[in-house]
Design goal:
Layout (H helix, E strand, L loop, with lengths): L4 H23 L2 H18 L7 H20 L10 H26 L3 H12 L4 H8 L3 H22 L4
Helix pairs in contact: 1-2, 1-3, 2-3, 3-4, 4-7, 5-6, 5-7, 6-7
C-alpha cells in the first residue's frame, strides 16, 4: 500500500501528543517515545481499514505492544544472566498495562454526559458515599443511585465500542 503522507500526518497531528505523553510516562526516554509514536502511527495507518472501535484506544494498545516488544528485545541475554528477569519483565508490562487502562478509562469517562461522569467520579474516584455524593453534587440520593446505574451501563457500552475488555 503506498504511503498516504496526508493521512499519516493527520493521524500524527491528532493523536501524537497524547501518545507521546503515554509512552513517556512508561519509558521516561523522549527519543524512545518519539520512535514508538512514529512506529505506532505507521502501523495503525496500515491497519486503519480493519480497525473496529476507537482509533485512539487502538493507537494506545499498539504503542503498548511496541513498548513491550522493544523491552523484550533489549532484555535478550544468555539464560544464566536472566535471574529475576521474568518478575522484572512482568512488572514493566503491568506498569504499561496500568497506564493504558487509565488512559482508556479517562477517554471513556470523557464520552459520558457530565451528570453521569460527575456521579461516577464522586462515588468511585473520590470514594464518597451516596449521601456524600448527593450533598456534594446538590442532588437527591435517589438521583445519585439512578445516575450511577445508568452511568455504569453507558460506560460499559462505550468501553465495548472502544474494544476494551472489562
Amino acid at each position: 500500500m503506498p504511503l498516504d503522507e496526508d493521512a499519516v500526518e493527520s493521524l500524527y497531528r491528532e493523536h501524537g501528543t497524547a501518545l507521546r505523553r503515554f509512552v513517556l510516562s512508561a519509558s521516561r526516554d523522549p527519543q524512545l517515545a518519539e520512535d514508538v509514536v512514529q512506529e505506532t502511527v505507521l502501523r495503525v495507518w496500515q491497519q486503519a481499514p480493519d480497525i473496529n472501535g476507537s482509533i485512539r484506544s487502538y493507537l494506545y494498545r499498539t504503542a503498548r505492544n511496541i513498548m513491550i516488544d522493544n523491552y523484550r528485545r533489549a532484555q535478550r541475554r544468555p539464560a544464566e544472566t536472566l535471574e529475576g528477569e521474568p518478575a522484572r519483565q512482568a512488572g514493566v508490562m503491568e506498569r504499561v498495562d496500568g497506564l493504558l487502562n487509565r488512559v482508556l478509562i479517562e477517554e471513556a469517562l470523557l464520552r459520558l454526559s457530565k451528570e453521569h461522569r460527575d456521579v461516577l467520579v464522586a462515588l468511585h474516584y473520590r470514594r464518597f458515599t451516596v449521601n456524600e455524593a448527593a450533598a456534594q453534587l446538590n442532588i437527591p440520593t435517589g438521583t445519585v443511585k439512578s445516575r450511577a446505574y445508568y452511568a455504569v451501563r453507558a460506560l460499559r457500552t462505550i468501553l465495548d465500542e472502544m474494544g476494551v475488555e472489562p
